[in-house]
Amino acid sequence: MMINDEEFGYVHINTGGKKLSDEEVEEAKEFLRSKKIERIIKKSDESHRRVMESKITDRTKM
Question: Which end of the chain has less neighbouring CB within 10 Å, N or C?
Answer without folding.
Answer: C
